[in-house]
């Protein structure tokens, strides 16, 4: 992730800054200059830039954080959905002693997406604290 942001405030030691992203994705073809401001968040000033309120900076997330996010939010639910599809027949035979229907397979696939997706969402909200993004460049 790379995003432009405006510095709102700087901590006393200068290591953390409160920034507000400048959302310009929808403005690529627009020449009006009406980029909207996003919700504020905290970023690290690991390179020790001399920042003050109003400065424009580029914020980047670590590659490790982005890779883990992809694995947990995309690959695990997709993998469990595929596994659930293959397990639909054995589950149906164990519970009802008959071949699974297409509807039951679809239900298993849906459960294979929703259950791990909900678990990832719950863990990310309450347990896992991702690393903070860093100020990469001062404009």
Structure notes:
With 139 residues, this protein is α+β, with helices and mostly antiparallel strands. The chain has helices at residues 63-96, 102-126; strands at residues 2-10, 16-23, 36-37, 41-44, 56-60, 134-138. Helix 1 (63-96) runs antiparallel to helix 2 (102-126).
List the keywords.
139 residues, alpha+beta, six-stranded antiparallel sheet, 2 helices, 24% strand
Helix count from the secondary structure assignment: 2
Would you count the extended β strands for me? 6
Rg over CA atoms = 22 Å
Distance between the termini: 18 Å
Content of β-strand: 15-25%
Shape: elongated
User: What fraction, in percent, of the residue positions are helical?
Assistant: 40-55%
Give the rounded overall mean pLDDT: 86
Low-confidence stretches: none
